[in-house]
Specification:
It is built from 3 helices and 8 strands; from the N terminus they run E-E-E-E-H-H-E-E-E-E-H. The protein is α+β, with helices and mostly antiparallel strands. The strands form 2 sheets. A 6-stranded antiparallel β-sheet has the order 3-4-6-7-8-5. It has a two-stranded antiparallel ribbon with strand order 1-2.
Length: about 170
């Protein structure tokens, strides 16, 4: 993963259509047994989604400060498969699955090496200060659709070759 320079926070990166965000499990993330508390997977995924938007050139802060609204989670489905533990190096993979006028669906997977620990489907909706949905800026929607179209094309390709899709 890249860093913008010395003493700058590490950033994730895109590998094709998938955004990769590395992190480490710290003591504060775990329960008394050293296992990651279930809600912290959501925190990891949130950081990864925010980083994905940043790396994709989407400036959420400027949009919000200009009165354009902010993303809120409208729907979330998560499946836990195995526990992460204190000291583990994890990777959160994020992939745009679908872009709609006011929302985006993102598939996310938390891995330790090749092992899948948790998988989620997250729908983030752009909402105004009044809590009502707002259309995403055209440039954002185009970027999401480009990423989702790549995912759909790759999925269709895998379906015809008999490979398993993520």
């Amino acid at each position: 993963m890249t860093a913008g320079g010395q003493d700058q926070p590490a950033e994730g990166r895109f590998a094709g259509r998938v955004h990769l965000f590395p992190l480490r499990v710290y003591f504060e993330d775990t329960d008394l047994s050293g296992v990651v508390y279930h809600a912290n997977y959501l925190r990891y995924m949130e950081r990864a989604r925010s980083d994905m938007l940043h790396v994709a050139g989407i400036d959420q802060r400027a949009h919000h400060e200009a009165g354009g609204g902010a993303y809120a989670i409208a729907d979330l489905h998560i499946r836990y498969a195995a526990p992460a533990r204190l000291g583990d190096a994890l990777l959160v993979e994020s992939e745009v699955a679908q872009a709609r006028a006011a929302s985006v669906v993102i598939h996310q997977t938390v891995r330790r090496g090749a092992e899948m620990l948790a998988r989620a489907e997250v729908t983030a909706a752009l909402v105004g200060a009044d809590g009502r949905p707002r259309r995403q800026p055209a440039a954002w929607l185009e970027q999401f659709r480009r990423l989702a179209a790549t995912a759909a094309a790759d999925s269709a390709s895998a379906d015809t070759t008999g490979e398993e899709t993520p």
